[in-house]
Design a protein that fits this description.
Length: 256
Amino acid sequence: MERETGSFMKPILETTVLVTGASRGIGASIAERFASIGMNVVIHYMNSHEAANEVARRCMDHGGRIMTVSADLRSKEQIERMYEKLKAHSMLPDILVNNAGVSHYGLLSDVSEEEWDAVMALNLKGVFLCTQMFMPHMISQRYGRIINVSSIWGISGASCEVLYSTTKGGINAFTKALAKELAPSGVTVNAVAPGAVETEMMQSFDPDEIKSIEEEIPAGRLAKPDEISSLVYFLALPESGYINGQIISPNGGWLT
């Protein structure tokens, strides 16, 4: 299986994907999905060293080159160091999945300036810094995929999640604008905006709250992480090159 990269062909086994926040949840599922076809995978994490190594071990079972790398995505200096490390190992990504992020629950009236800045820095600034760092490689080869993991709340907004919703809405606008900017260079930019997914992010809800959410969803259940990673994988395929600037929300019919 090969993909066309503008002026040359590159075997899929030489294609590299960088997944940020890949030590658990949706990020881990995405990393394993790409590894399952033998692609080279870079598993980014910030502090969860052992969890990232466990994801890497599962990915290695499929035979591709697997690498873990730690960086605080709020820091341009650390992202630059990550770039240099990947470059030294010939692992600059052809596909960038901006998945890292944190949730925040609470009334806007209770949000401190420090909390606002911290969530904005990782969820939105981190996407900007990572994309800015790695997109020149894609532009230079006239092929690339940038896929941002957003949220249903970035589309509809959520009460008591104003800060989180704002960051995800910003990602959606970032996606649409950058898609137009990079399209002439053969690079697509899309976002996946999941509804409720069975991950650690949902552990702050008690069973009754989860049941209430499931009753609101026409599908009657939360999504599995692999249902999200399969969509990310599809958007990264060479044949998905005409899908660009889209915010696609797998949410079980919750929002239509």
